[in-house]
Amino acid sequence: MRIFNVVATAVALGGAAAGPALAQAAESHITVTGNGSAEAAPDMASVSLGVVTEAATAAGAMAANSAALTEVMATLAEAGIEPRDIQSSGLTLSPAYEDTYQGGPEGPRVRGFVAQNMVTVRVRALGSLGGVLDAAVGQGANTLYGLGFGLQDPEPKLDDARREAIADARRKAELYALAAGVTLGEVVSISEQVDYGRPMPEMRAASFAKDAGVPVAGGELNLTASVTVVYDLTD
User: Fold this and answer.
1) How many domains does the chain have?
2) How far apart are CA 126 and CA 122, in angstroms?
3) What residues have CB less than 8 Å from 170, skipping those under 6 apart?
4) What is the mean pLDDT of residues 119-147?
5) CA-CA distance, 212 to 182, in Å (whole number)?
6) 83 inside domain
7) Do 35 and 48 sit in the same domain of this protein?
C-alpha cells in the first residue's frame, strides 16, 4: 500500500519540502484546518467611564472624586443598572504640575493633585445605552475609557461557527485527497484552535461635555471558530 501523509500547509508550499516527511510516515493521514464564522447583533455593551477631579490637596481631590463618583453610581442605578454590573476598575491619585515650568534646580512646581476613578459598567438593555451614558455624564462622569459590544450568551452563535469550521475542514480534506488520488477515511482527531489574542475594544480616553448627546450604534459582531482535523487516508 502506498503511504501518504498529506498536511495542508505542506501541499500549499509545494511537494519538494514535504518529501522526507512522507517517506518517514508510519501511517497515512491528512491534516487540515477549517474556519467558520457567524454574525450576530450585540445584545449588551461594556462601558469604562470615570471621574477625574483636581484640588489643591490630595485629600481634597479624593473627597471631590468620591462625591462625584457616588452621584454617577446612583444615577446608573436609577437607569436600571444592577449592582453586579458595576465594577470599580481603577483608582489613581497623582500630583499635578504647573504647565509653565521653564526648568531650574527646584524642579516643576506642584499646583495640586488629580484623583481619577474608573468603573466598568455592563449595559444589558442595549437600547438604553445612549441614555445611560447621557445620565452618567450629566452627574459628573467626565472621561470615557472604552466602549465594547458583546453577547450575553455567545455559545449558540459560536456553535454555528464551529459547525461551519468542521464543514470547511471536510471540504478541504476531500479536495486534497482527490488531488492526491487517495480516499478520505475516518476522522482521527479534532482540536479547536483557541485564540487568546482576540481584539479588545479600543481604549482611547475621551472627555465629555456635560450636555453631550451620545449616539451609539452596535453594528454586528463576527464570531469565529477554527478547528484542526486529522483524517485517515486509504488507497
Assistant:
1) 2
2) 10
3) 34, 229
4) 88
5) 66
6) yes
7) no
Residue 53 lies inside a defined structural domain of this protein: yes
The amino acid sitting at 211 is D
CB atoms under 10 Å from CB of 11, counted, come to: 17
pLDDT in the model for residue 146: 84
DSSP for 174-189 reads HHHHHHHT-EEEEEEE
Sequence-distant (≥ 6) Cβ neighbours of residue 189 within 8 angstroms: 229, 230
Average pLDDT value for residue range 9-22: 39
Using pLDDT thresholds of 50, 70 and 90, give the confidence band for residue 114: very high
- Cα–Cα distance measured from residue 213 to residue 233, given in angstroms and rounded to the nearest whole number: 62
Give the end of a domain, one of 119, 150, 181.
Answer: 150
Q: Quick one: which of 45, 66, 46, 47 has its CA closest to 55? A: 66
Domain range enclosing 50: 44-150
Q: To which residue does cell 455559545 refer?
A: 155
Cα 47 to Cα 13: distance, rounded to the nearest angstrom: 45
Looking at the chain, list the stretches that DSSP marks H as alpha helix, in order from N- to C-terminal side: 8-13, 19-24, 58-78, 129-138, 155-180
Find, among 199, 229, 217, 216, the residue nearest to 6 by Cα.
229
Phi, psi of 219 (to 5 degrees): 65, -140
Buried b (16+ CB within 10 A) or exposed e, 138-165: ebbbbbbbbbebbbeebeebbebbbebb
Q: Check: pTM over 0.85? Answer yes or no.
A: no
